[in-house]
Write a structure and sequence with these properties.
Number of domains: 2
Shape: elongated
Structural class: mainly alpha
Oligomer: single chain
Number of helices: 12
Order of helices and strands: HHHHHHHHHHHH
Helix content: over 70%
Number of strands: 0
């Protein structure tokens, strides 16, 4: 096999592992069943396995999977970084190349820092301290997805969804809430389900704009309980603020 074809094979494998990682990540976020362990990549991660073994003075059975990575590395070389690690794949996809040649020696020198960090992580693990595993590539990528990417996507999709059909529904929900004398969660549920049936849509199409208006997010405690706990006055106030906020923005 030629060197160029070998590189192409490696890239295909990288993309497949990246797709698998994102698939397992989404299943974890959605709390769905998975045919594979959702922590598969942590099981294959040599740094996580070695650090956990040093800290616990034992070899966790789940982390024996990392032996596969280590054996493959002895045969193919840098299997984890060059073939499996999803962060490594993303760095290869979005590689920043400096046009300034004078920066190359400095960059090469900084590359040696990773060996020092590896030593510090493993040395800390000897004293049962795994705090520095936050520097593990999987930890960096997972935390970035959960604290930055997923919230940003959730906000974007929620905003677009609200613009597309939420405003009209929310105005109708507000009018219904105003006319309600009893404000228990049973009454609120009955009203929302009745409105959904009247509009010929699922409950989510009615409840979701209300949830976004009163909580600012598409995820909250059960909507009927949330509205009851807020009370009529605060619920209506938050709906009015949401309507005012979104109506002043350009419509999609």
């Amino acid at each position: 096999m030629t060197a160029q074809r070998w590189v192409r094979v490696r890239q295909i494998v990288q993309y497949l592992f990246l797709a698998l990682f994102l698939y397992l990540f989404i299943l974890t976020v959605k709390d769905r069943w998975s045919p594979l362990p959702v922590d598969l990549f942590y099981r294959l991660d040599p740094l996580a396995a070695i650090s956990a073994s040093l800290a616990g003075r034992t070899i966790p059975s789940k982390l024996l999977w990392a032996l596969v990575t280590l054996v493959a590395t002895l045969i193919l070389g840098r299997v984890w970084c060059g073939w499996v690690c999803p962060l490594g794949t993303l760095l290869d996809l979005f590689r920043f190349r400096s046009p300034v040649n004078s920066l190359r020696p400095l960059y090469s020198g900084w590359r040696q820092v990773k060996y020092f960090l590896l030593f510090v992580v493993l040395f800390s693990a000897l004293f049962a301290n795994l705090t520095l595993l936050i520097l593990d590539p999987l930890t960096i990528l997972t935390r970035t997805l959960t604290t930055v990417v997923m919230p940003a996507l959730n906000y974007a999709f929620t905003t677009v969804e609200f613009w597309l059909y939420g405003l009209g529904i929310l105005q109708v929900v507000r009018d219904k809430l105003v006319s309600m004398e009893s404000f228990t969660k049973e009454d609120i549920e009955r009203m929302l389900r009745g409105l959904a049936a009247e509009k010929g849509v699922g409950l989510g199409k009615v409840a979701q704009p209300l949830r976004v208006a009163i909580s600012g997010t598409s995820i909250s405690t059960p909507i009927f309980d949330s509205v009851e706990m807020l009370g009529k006055e605060y619920t209506l106030s938050r709906i009015d603020n949401a309507l005012k906020k979104f109506e002043t923005r350009p419509q999609i």
